[in-house]
């Protein structure tokens, strides 16, 4: 029997690793004949991930081979799937991503996709992605690289253009959970809802929302009209004005447009939790420590699935079971009115032949307009790295809607210098220049 090797890169993100493994081992066909190869550069976190993996496998009656590797090459060698969940810089860099912009009066809620936080998270991740791509090309060239690391769209575009890998798909749960939440809101079982969405990661749009042939948007409209508290959500506000519901939380959605975070009155009206992600990061660290302590004490761990896409992709490719997921892939004719080469989020068919993106056609023009700004900003960040041009970092933040709404251009350049100085050691050498204002 052929063993399927699945390499987890950044397995020390233990909470996420646990959820993915619980999902994997929930499939009967993946309880055996699977090699889980864990890699992390932090020895303690790697040991914790290995312990958690063994506990989850035993709890779910699975019998995989589990190995832990400080050397990434050993984890990748012969892998059929590579799951990337690395966060370069960890909590310290994330805190910097919030604290420096805040000194300039720039508000962020999550800071992992656009804005100063997204830009510098990408720039410190790109060197890792380049070397990871080189290793995959050498050690497991036929592997599927399933990326979870944010900023999703920038990272997938960089991987495609810097490494030449073609079996790359970015995975995010935003469409799935949006549709679960919307179904609950209009009181229709999720399993009975038909929907279609497309756009870019964290800013895709629900293009169709139906139940037994009935358009469910009018039901949502009636609820919004009746409930003043619903109208105090950013994505409800965006839906009312744009006509299509966005597929990410209000916290995320507020950062990708110029209308909300730059105005204290809107922050209050829409109850936006500025800096909220720092609390999430602290919670993740606390969850990791709880897991480590439970393993050391020999007490049971919580083993819960997360409904993530990566285990479903693995299952479909290994068993030939067809299913549809939402994936982030280069735009090669998939969305006609978005730039070619940018990363778009579209329905993808998955079976034994792999992940096959489906063409959507054109988005509604108002939705495409916002997505084009998002992708233009992404393109400048990727170009900064590919062309070793530090000016493009500044151009990206000049293009970023929320940053440009908050600061004059001179202050944007000063902010970039401060961010470069703070993250200097994690950036490729050519991007470490401070250019003044």
Features:
437 residues; alpha/beta; 9-stranded mixed beta sheet; 17 helices; 13 strands
Report on the structure:
The chain has 17 helices and 13 strands. The chain is of the alpha/beta class. The strands form two sheets. It has a nine-stranded mixed beta sheet with strand order 3-2-1-4-5-6-11-12-13. Strands 7, 8, 9 and 10 form a four-stranded antiparallel beta sheet that branches. The longest helix is centred in the N-terminal third of the chain and has 25 residues. It is globular, with a radius of gyration of 21 Å.
Topology, please?
Blueprint: E1 4-9, H1 14-25, E2 34-39, H2 43-59, E3 65-69, H3 72-76, E4 81-84, H4 90-103, H5 115-139, E5 144-147, H6 152-163, E6 168-171, H7 174-185, E7 193-200, E8 203-211, E9 214-215, H8 217-226, H9 234-242, E10 245-246, H10 250-253, H11 264-269, H12 276-297, H13 309-319, E11 323-330, E12 343-351, E13 354-357, H14 365-386, H15 391-399, H16 401-406, H17 409-423
Parallel strand pairs: 1-2, 1-4, 2-3, 4-5, 5-6
Antiparallel strand pairs: 6-11, 7-8, 8-9, 8-10, 11-12, 12-13
Helix pairs in contact: 1-2, 1-13, 2-12, 4-5, 4-12, 4-17, 5-6, 5-14, 6-14, 14-15, 15-17
In short:
By secondary structure, this protein is α/β, with parallel strands linked by helices.
Task: Write down the overall mean pLDDT.
Answer: 95
Low-confidence stretches: none
How much of the sequence lies in strands comes to 15-25%
Instruction: Figure out the total of helices.
Output: 17
Helix content: 40-55%
Total count of strands: 13
- Strand arrangement within the widest β-sheet reads 3-2-1-4-5-6-11-12-13
- Our measurement of the CA-to-CA distance between the termini, rounded to an integer number of angstroms, reads 62 Å
What value does the Rg take, in angstroms? 21 Å
Apparent shape: globular
Helix/strand/pairing category: alpha/beta
The topology string of helices and strands comes to EHEHEHEHHEHEHEEEHHEHHHHEEEHHHH
| Main sheet record | 9 strands, mixed
């Amino acid at each position: 029997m052929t063993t399927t090797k699945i390499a987890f890169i950044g397995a020390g993100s233990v909470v996420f690793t646990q959820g993915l493994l619980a999902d994997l081992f929930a499939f009967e066909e993946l309880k055996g004949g699977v090699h889980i190869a864990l890699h992390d550069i932090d020895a303690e976190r790697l040991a914790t991930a290995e312990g958690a993996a063994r506990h989850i496998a035993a709890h779910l009656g699975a019998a995989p081979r589990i190995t832990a590797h400080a050397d990434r090459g050993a984890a990748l060698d012969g892998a059929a799937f590579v799951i990337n969940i690395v966060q370069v810089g960890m909590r310290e860099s994330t805190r910097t991503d919030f604290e420096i912009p805040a000194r300039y009066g720039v508000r962020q809620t999550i800071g992992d996709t656009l804005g100063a936080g997204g830009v510098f998270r990408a720039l410190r991740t790109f060197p890792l992605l380049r070397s990871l791509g080189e290793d995959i090309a050498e050690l497991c060239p036929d592997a599927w690289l399933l990326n979870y690391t944010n900023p999703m769209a920038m990272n997938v575009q960089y991987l495609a253009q810097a490494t030449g890998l073609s079996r790359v798909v970015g995975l995010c749960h935003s469409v799935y959970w949006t549709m679960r939440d919307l179904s609950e809101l209009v009181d229709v079982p999720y399993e009975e809802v038909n929907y279609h969405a497309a756009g870019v990661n964290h800013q895709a749009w629900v293009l169709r929302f139906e139940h037994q042939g009935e358009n469910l948007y009018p039901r949502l409209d009636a609820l919004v009209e009746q409930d003043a508290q619903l109208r105090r959500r950013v994505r409800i506000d965006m839906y009312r004005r744009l006509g299509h519901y966005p597929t990410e939380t209000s916290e995320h959605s507020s950062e990708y447009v110029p209308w909300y975070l730059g105005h204290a009155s809107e922050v209050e009206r829409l109850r936006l939790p500025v800096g909220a992600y720092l609390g999430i990061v602290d919670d993740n660290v606390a969850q990791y420590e709880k897991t480590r302590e439970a393993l050391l004490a020999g007490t049971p761990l919580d083993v819960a699935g997360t409904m993530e896409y990566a285990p479903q992709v693995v299952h479909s490719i290994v068993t030939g079971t067809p299913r549809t997921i939402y994936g982030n892939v280069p735009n090669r004719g998939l969305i006609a009115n978005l730039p070619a080469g940018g990363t778009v989020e579209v329905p993808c068919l998955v079976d034994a032949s792999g992940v096959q993106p489906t063409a959507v056609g054109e988005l509604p023009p108002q939705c495409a307009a916002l997505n084009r700004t998002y992708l233009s900003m992404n393109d400048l960040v990727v170009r900064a790295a590919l062309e070793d041009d530090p000016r493009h970092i500044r151009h990206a933040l000049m293009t970023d809607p929320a940053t440009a709404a908050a600061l004059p251009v001179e202050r944007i350049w000063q902010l970039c210098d401060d961010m470069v100085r703070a993250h200097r050691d994690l950036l490729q050498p050519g991007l470490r220049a401070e250019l003044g204002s």
